[in-house]
Amino acid sequence: PQGSEKAKTFVHAFLKRSMPKMKDEAIQDMLTRKAVVLEHYPKKKTKQKRKKTKGFTAKQRRELRLFEIEPEQQRYAIFLPLHELWKQYIRDLCHGLKPDAQPHMIQGKLLKADLHGAIVTVTKSKCPSYVGITGIILQEFKHIFKIITKEDKLKVVPKLNNVFSLELDGFISYIYGSKFLFRASERSAKKFKLKGTIDL
């Protein structure tokens, strides 16, 4: 039939174009055996490198004012619910803060606890102007606490050379800021050693 001749011509031309180095006799031989294998070279897939998402630098964070609390938000009453949440968090962490609880066990847990929301007081300091400052910790950085006082004033208190006290359910704990120069995230994994005497 005429259609089969067209198909034969097309296949012959296709094979000639696909395999230009092969002679006509070899192509004809392949057609008579009715087995045609075309060589295929798959393209190598190039692996795309994943781009790591970069966070903001310290300079960019300062420029964007990410950690600054707006003046209209600097009110003690706003953060009292945060303090209530913190108290419940510490009670759960220390299994109730019962009178028969061992102080060193509670102290060890407080050293690693999150202090955002705790009410602290500066009890000792090499700078007398810091002594007596009391308020809720709003932010903790490596070297400073940001504290909001009952007078709605935001105080930036350095940890170095200051001793802080916090009270919860009759249990008073003291924080020696000079030994506390860690970020909150670093502190949770830090192993603190017991020391007999600690200086400012």
From TrEMBL:
Top-rank taxon, per record: Eukaryota
Any one GO BP annotation for this protein: rRNA processing
Database matches in SMART domains: POP4
One GO cellular component, as annotated: ribonuclease P complex
Subcellular location field: Nucleus, Nucleolus
Major subcellular location class: nucleus
One Pfam family recorded for the sequence: RNase_P-MRP_p29
InterPro entries found in the cross-reference section: RNase_P/MRP_Rpp29-subunit (IPR016848), RNase_P/MRP_Rpp29_sf (IPR036980), Rof/RNase_P-like (IPR023534), Rpp29/RNP1 (IPR002730)
SUBUNIT field: Component of nuclear RNase P and RNase MRP ribonucleoproteins. RNase P consists of a catalytic RNA moiety and 10 different protein chains; POP1, POP4, POP5, POP7, RPP14, RPP21, RPP25, RPP30, RPP38 and RPP40. Within the RNase P complex, POP1, POP7 and RPP25 form the 'finger' subcomplex, POP5, RPP14, RPP40 and homodimeric RPP30 form the 'palm' subcomplex, and RPP21, POP4 and RPP38 form the 'wrist' subcomplex. All subunits of the RNase P complex interact with the catalytic RNA. Several subunits of RNase P are also part of the RNase MRP complex.
Function: Component of ribonuclease P, a ribonucleoprotein complex that generates mature tRNA molecules by cleaving their 5'-ends.
Protein name: Ribonuclease P protein subunit p29
